[in-house]
């Protein structure tokens, strides 16, 4: 199994791949929805960060949301037809960056033992990071399909990591 530090690098690699998928798109492309029962790329960007914050908050440390107004909108329990009014690309970017900083801070505290029950939380952090990475890649697959299939943009190469492989078409970090 990968160490927490290695998983944090994989988390950063997954986020960088996500950025490769959308940073060159126009704001209109980021908020465009292929149809009403589909989510815009921007929703997926916010959702990835929302889930990361939600899981870290609920499994390792209670802390407030970095942007409470986005919580309901970015929750996948919110039906697709209600995911249309998205924040600006700048706000989504700031939200993603803030959440990533918080993930690093909290997991860093766990990795260095600056928490109660550090051994137990290391087990939690290892599984948590694996889940966050694979969730990031799960939504990257949909972003890729819209980017290439609907918007006509070339896809970047897959991230380079000995710990990544494709399963059912999805990139996954394989920690076993």
Automatic annotation (TrEMBL):
<feature type="domain" description="DinB-like">
    <location>
        <begin position="11"/>
        <end position="143"/>
    </location>
</feature>
<dbReference type="InterPro" id="IPR034660">
    <property type="entry name" value="DinB/YfiT-like"/>
</dbReference>
<protein>
    <submittedName>
        <fullName>DinB family protein</fullName>
    </submittedName>
</protein>
<dbReference type="InterPro" id="IPR024775">
    <property type="entry name" value="DinB-like"/>
</dbReference>
<dbReference type="Pfam" id="PF12867">
    <property type="entry name" value="DinB_2"/>
</dbReference>
